[in-house]
Design goal:
The chain is built from 16 helices and 13 strands. By secondary structure, it is an alpha/beta fold. The longest helix is centred in the middle third of the chain and has 14 residues.
């Protein structure tokens, strides 16, 4: 018999939260697998942040249940529950009179971790988040830029090595360049790659960049839950279709692969220069366009393709593939 799949890290059953007559979270049920990156997306007031806070009991539900690793969160003291779940918010919430190192070490110290272990962990995280401890550890939050403060907040959330990290608009207050750098760190940081993450954002391209699955919410209800590609190319209803309309072309370039475009390419016999960038068929069209721009060439090589194709051929094929 095949081995059974491991139980989900997070299981939500019929979760409901009301403010007066309005259900901000309305009978939601879903699961989050170990190591999955689930992004909560939707218009303002749709229930994203409320749902996130229900997961670690910052808000108590009016109905339903949340289980973490098979255990109902109501069976645990809220403080103990939260110490085992990393939490990152847009406002960062660093303690202003603590140094950077002291802010990062808050949770490990509350958990009674040895001082030497906590110090080593703090130094390691600061280094990985491009905040060398020799320079930044003794600084106060007020001495840091917004992006640096956000990196410290992320280091603090990861310091005790929690299996789950909740993130509420973690990059929302940053300028576009810093925000893009933070997203790259998010994707490249080993500590986050192996953790279960539930992240709230209102930024559609950000959701497509970071998510394994997206939960699109409206009026406290799930409109669709699935991989980003599925929501874009197979919307469950008119709301889902309309929600992505403004970003549709850019998102299609992100999810469309070169393998899906190749059948629509009208190849010619023009030879490509030897230094033309090469990509696997699984790469996205967006990645291909970025590589062409970086290389300053109009030619692209694709593994197993009959020959290289030009930028014009690629764009024409994309147009045909998208109908």
């Amino acid at each position: 018999m095949p081995a059974s799949s491991p139980p989900p890290v997070v299981r939500v059953s019929h979760l409901t939260k009301r403010y007066g007559p309005r259900a901000v979270v309305d009978d939601l049920s879903f699961e989050v697998a170990a190591g999955e990156k689930l992004v909560l997306l939707g218009p303002s007031g749709c229930g994203k942040t409320t749902l996130l806070k229900l997961l670690n009991r910052l808000i108590e539900p009016d109905g339903g249940a949340v289980e973490i690793n098979g255990r109902d969160v109501r069976q645990q003291a809220p403080e103990a529950l939260r110490r085992g779940i990393g939490y990152v918010i847009q406002q960062v919430g660093l303690l202003p009179h603590y140094t950077v190192a002291e802010n990062v070490a808050v949770v490990p110290r509350l958990l009674g971790r040895p001082a030497a272990e906590t110090s080593a962990r703090t130094t390691e995280l600061l280094e990985r988040l491009h905040l060398p401890a020799a320079r930044f550890a003794a600084m106060l939050p007020a001495q840091l830029s917004g992006g640096q403060q956000q990196r410290v907040g992320l280091a603090r959330a990861l310091a005790a090595d929690p299996p789950i990290v909740l993130m509420d608009e973690p990059f929302g207050a940053l300028d576009p360049i810093t925000r893009a750098a933070m997203r790259r760190d998010f994707l490249e940081l080993d500590e986050l790659r192996r953790k279960t993450v539930v992240l709230v954002t209102h930024d559609v391209p950000e959701a497509f960049e970071l998510a394994d699955r997206i939960m699109l919410l409206n009026n406290g209800q799930i409109q669709q839950l699935g991989p980003p590609r599925e929501l874009l190319l197979a919307p469950a209803n008119d709301f889902v279709r309309r929600f992505f309309q403004a970003d549709r072309l850019a998102l299609q370039l992100r999810v469309l692969t070169l393998a899906e475009v190749l059948p629509f390419v009208a190849f010619d016999r023009k030879p490509a220069p030897g230094d033309a960038p090469a990509l696997p068929p699984t790469a996205s069209v967006q990645t291909a366009l970025a590589r062409l721009a970086e290389a300053g060439t109009d030619f692209l090589r694709i593994a197993n393709a009959p020959q290289a194709l030009t930028l014009g051929q690629l764009l024409a094929a994309v147009g045909r593939a998208l109908g």
